[in-house]
Amino acid sequence: KPNWSVAFECLDNCANPLVVSGLGAGSHFVEIKLLDANWGEICKKEQTVNVSNFNGGNGSNALRFENKRQRLAFDRIYPNPAKYWVTLEVFSKEDQHAVLDFYNQQGQAIHRLELDLKKGRNEVQLDVSEWRSGTYNVIGRGDGLPAYGRFLKVWEE
Description:
The chain is an all-beta fold. The protein is built from no helices and twelve strands. The protein is elongated, with a radius of gyration of 19 Å. The termini are far apart.
């Protein structure tokens, strides 16, 4: 609807959930997208929601989405720079299946790692000895929004 107003969840651990207001009561099919700085789609969620009066009878409707943003995070990536192996410390708020995608600076996919994470701190080691020197970005996808990390790979001469 063209009269929707969107207030985004703040990114500094504040407690406000994403709120979309202006929806009339009834059933709505919504699509939520997370976009990167170049308006490229990182991930999306589609669902049907039923809207009723959520604000205690004051006449306005608001749709609230459960906050799953911090279900996965990179605590540390080391050594950085890396020569042969890199260790990723991945924190998960719950047991979950996750995918780690590694990209070079040109945005080309280099490697994909699928793993099952346990709640808490997980240590993942990856052999990067055959990778070219350069900066690599890693995107971790699980139940929540993606986590991002970066490391430098150097070649020993």
